[in-house]
Amino acid sequence: MTSMRRQKQATAERGRSPDGTEGPVLKVEDLTLYFRSIAGVVQAVEGVSFELTRGRSLTIIGESGCGKTSLARAVLRLLPKNVHTYRGRVILNGVDVMKFGEERFRKEVRWRKMSMVSQAAMNALNPVLKVGYQVAEPLLLDHRMGKKDAYRRAREVFSLVGIPEAFMERYSFELSGGMRQRAILAMALITDPDIIILDEPTSALDVLTQANIMNTLKKIKQDLGLSFMLITHDIATSSELADEVICMYAGQLVEHSDGQRFYREPLHPYSQKLMASVPTLRIEKKPEFIPGRPPSLLNPPTGCRFADRCHRRFERCDEEPPLFEHGEETVKCWLYEKG
Amino acid sequence: MDNNKVLSLKGVRTYFELKRWGFLHAGYVRAVDGVSFDLSRGEAVTIVGESGSGKTTLLRTILGLAKMTDGEMIFGGRKLDYNNSQDLTWLRWQVGFVQQDPYGATAPFMNVHRILSEPLIVNKVPKHERGQRIREALEEVRLIPVDDFLHKFPHMLSGGQQQRLVVARALLLRPMLIVADEPVSMLDASVRVEVLELMAKIQKDYNLGVIYITHDLSSVRYFSQRAFVMYAAKLVEKADVNEIVNNPLHPYTQVLLNAIPDPEPENVGRFKDIPAGEPPSLIKPPPGCRFHPRCSRKIEGLCDTEEPPEFEPRPNHFTECWLYK
Q1: What ipTM did this prediction achieve?
Q2: Nearest to A206 among B158, B215, B221 (CB)
Q3: What's domain B5-264+274-324's architecture?
Q4: Which chain B residue lies closest to A238 (C-alpha atoms)?
């Protein structure tokens, strides 16, 4: 399948259903991931469910250790060896890919349908291979495409992410941080996936470079109709790609809201506190902090996991809250219980 | 003499020599190129700049870790001679340093007590005084109850606690100045403000000078009084922090502020205006203003040939840009 056709197809699909009436591109149901460690079982991700609509972007925010990277890895099944429990359903384009064997998942899903831009841009490239080869590698290893076609496609994605073609012949250490991040993005784009998972794509970069990469991502999203999952702890940056927002706390999803709403009026007390802690440049508002620290995931509290630090705690909070619907949004908090 | 001044830099330059084959001179990296500013007691300034702009070298120069090539540094009324080891020892006593990565800045095999003893031993504080000083410092950064913390190792502390430990260590010798290199960039949003508030309180209580080095102006804007913008080894704009935020004059500052996002839903689908190109090489900086190749408001024949001096278009607002001639 040539890339041009795929691009046209993507555009056509967007034209047909701009409001996303067709099924979600990704549906995650009750995804759970526990790790074994010397100290016990770490409950990194606990029963997370969400849907991602085609052509939309979803931002997952939370503090370090809240399980957001584990969630991304669980979706893409890039797991370390010490997995204790891994269950739930990952439904991609209507197919439950959790049922696939490792070999089939690798061949049909990972990088074909979902790819990932990893966190450490500086170290994610191989210093002894030319950048052009590294970007074309997913296609070259696949044997579905000749060398010539693969490199032609690599040139296409290079121009898409805004790297001059001459850089294909360079090595990673000759590139600046921003260029390296773009090269990694090109690597994720080359197989024409439906979803790209961006794990802290800009946290190691300067403000100007960061804004530049964000511009590129928005353009790609607009032109190709891709779906993004952006994982970040930087809430200000997250708003740049947030059609929808998921806020995580201590391994659990605590709020899933529309971006338009979340940044104005977060629902969960944790989201409210988190938003209040974000410094702003243009709005005069003195940031606050959240006292205390998140619970250990080795032995999390039985009730609401945020209860100890919550400013609106009441008796119900000793019990674990389910996800309540509040209009379009879902919140894991007893305050939004109906009736 | 102004007793209130902690630090005064005049035309400070720090160059690193480049060598070819190990001995042939091959030029200089002009990491800090003519920086001047004054810092009073009880005042906090922020130096904002991108990586490679020379802000860390400036910090190292102030700490006495990099040798000044040219210029003058007056610290606490004393003109410092970098070739005099007594001066350097005294300087390092007077300056506390808060590193970026708290875990990397503390030895993993030492407990809190040992980590805090180290600077006291090195600086020959008598043994009987040490315990008391350590306790005071820990109480100051609110790592209380102190006895619970004294025997913990860094990995047992949360990120915020680790950073507070580093602040405590910087305070131990009761310095006149604290230099903080991206003190909160490794911390989570919810604890950043806690560390910054703590530093602001210490600054006030001890009447210290504080220099924050950061690339993110929004996080420190409420905790410093003045801000300096650094681009390609020079301070291109110096003003009150609110003045910089609300009324930036230098085109680079305008671009930089424009790039910093605020958490607003409108950001989705809004493209930012970012100038093309990268900061110039510090080995061979462009002639004239260093920002001119990327500047949208450059004046042909002036910006690309002559280096702009410092102008003061508004009271106490300095900028190195020909637009304000």
Answers
A1: 0.83
A2: B215
A3: 3-Layer(aba) Sandwich (3.40)
A4: B263
Copy the structure tokens of residue A111.
């990088």
Contact B265 A264 (CB under 8 A): yes
Domain extent listing, chain A: 24-102+195-213+225-302
Min Cα separation B268/chain A (Å): 5
Q: Would you list the domain boundaries of chain B?
A: 5-264+274-324
Chain A residue with CA closest to B260: the answer is: A207
Q: Between chains, do A239 and B267 touch, taking CB under 8 Å as contact?
A: yes
pLDDT tens over chain B, length 325 residues: 456 889 999 999 999 988 888 888 888 999 999 999 999 999 999 999 888 888 889 999 998 888 888 999 999 888 888 888 888 888 888 999 998 888 889 999 999 999 999 999 988 889 999 999 999 999 999 888 889 899 999 998 888 899 999 999 999 988 999 999 988 888 888 888 989 999 999 999 999 999 999 888 888 888 999 999 999 999 999 999 999 999 999 999 999 998 888 888 888 878 888 887 788 888 888 889 999 999 888 898 899 899 999 999 999 999 999 999 8
Q: Report residue A277 CA to chain centroid gap.
A: 22
Q: What's the whole-model pTM score?
A: 0.86
Fold of A24-102+195-213+225-302: Rossmann fold (3.40.50)
DSSP per residue over A21-60, as a string? -SPPSEEEEEEEEEEEETTEEEEEEEEEEEEE-TT-EEEE
Q: Diameter of chain A by CA atoms?
A: 66
Using CB atoms, pick whichever of B159, B216, B264 lies closest to residue A239. B264
Min distance B255 CA to chain A CA atoms (Å): 8
**Residues B223, B193: Cα–Cα separation, whole Å:** 9
Question: A219 vs chain B: nearest CA distance in angstroms?
Answer: 9
